[in-house]
Amino acid sequence: MTLPEYAIWQILLYLQAHPEAKDTVDGIRTWWISQSEDLPNEALVEAIDELVRKGWLHEREGLSSPKVYGLNPHARPAIEMFLRARTLQFQERITPPTQD
Q: Among the CATH numbers 1.50.10.100, 1.10.150.20, 3.60.15.10, 1.10.10.10, which is that of 3-94?
C-alpha cells in the first residue's frame, strides 16, 4: 500500500465513523489520520485530491481561509464498498494460511 492509499483508507474510515466531519488539510492530518507524523504532506494532499476527483469529498474554499473538506453523503455507498474490499484485502494479508 502506498502512502496516499494509506491516507485515503484512514480518511474514509474516519468519515465512516464521523460523517458530518469537515476540516482543513492540517485538521485532517491531526484528527483523521492515525500515525500522521509518518505521512508526508505530499501524500496527504495527493490522497485528498484523489477523493475530491472521485467525488467522495466536497471541497469548499473561502476567500481568506484554507480549503475545507467533508464527506459527499451521496458517495457513502461507494465508500462503504471500497472500505469492505480494502478490509478484506488487509485481512487476507495478515491472516496466516490454514492447514487442511
A: 1.10.10.10
